Amino acid sequence: MKKFLLISLFGLFSVSAFSQTTITFHHSNLPFIGVNYQFGERFIPEFRLGTDTYLEDLSAELVANYIFKKTDRFEFYGGAGLRVGSFDGIVVPVGLNIYPFEQKDFGFHIEGAPILGFEDDSLFRGSFGIRYRFSKN
After folding, report:
1. Please, are residues 133 and 29 in contact by the beta-carbon 8 Å criterion?
2. Do residues 64 and 93 make contact, with C-beta atoms less than 8 angstroms apart?
3. How far apart are CA 2 and CA 16, in angstroms?
4. Pairing of strands 94-98, 106-117
5. Coil, strand, or helix at residue 53?
6. How many angstroms separate the CA atoms of 30 and 86, rounded?
7. Would you state the pLDDT for residue 1?
8. Cβ-count burial of 136 within 10 angstroms (0-12 exposed, 13-18 middle, 19+ buried)?
9. Which pLDDT does position 103 carry in this prediction?
């Protein structure tokens, strides 16, 4: 688990010079924070780390999202990824990023994501939250 986290963080931070960075907070029964880098107009890999938990119960996700529909005010996306820690399995997020303000750095989002467990356990996580995009300058 520790090696997965270190390798994931190193990979994400090593490409930061070539992409746009966004941080997110998702509120739900399984809350998490995320860091993503948008490549081009459509591809968004994201590293997610569970919050409100003990360190020995920490969960991490690595997902690859694709923006299907994009306007000035919203982005509709979907993707797939892997979750390790509590509720190990495949994650299939589908969500909406909303940018209601004139300045498009700050926004909101909602997401639904089935977590298909490697054992018999599966669950559906719904979340909402805030996001901040760092400018490309």
Report:
1. no
2. no
3. 22
4. antiparallel
5. coil
6. 10
7. 53
8. exposed
9. 87
pLDDT value at position 86? 82
Q: Per DSSP, what are the bridge partners of residue 48?
A: 34, 61
C-alpha 132/C-alpha 42 separation (Å) is: 17
**pLDDT tens for residues 100-111?**
998 888 999 999
Q: Which domains does the chain have, with CATH numbers?
A: 2-133 (2.40.160.20)
Token pair of 109 as six digits? 């989002």
Taking residues 30-58, report their average pLDDT.
Answer: 90
Could you tell me which residues come within 8 angstroms of residue 94 by beta carbon, excluding any fewer than 6 positions away?
77, 78, 111, 112, 113
pLDDT in tens, 76-109: 999 999 999 888 999 999 999 999 998 888 999 9
Q: Provide the b/e sequence for 79-92 (b: ≥16 CB within 10 Å).
A: bebebbbebebebb
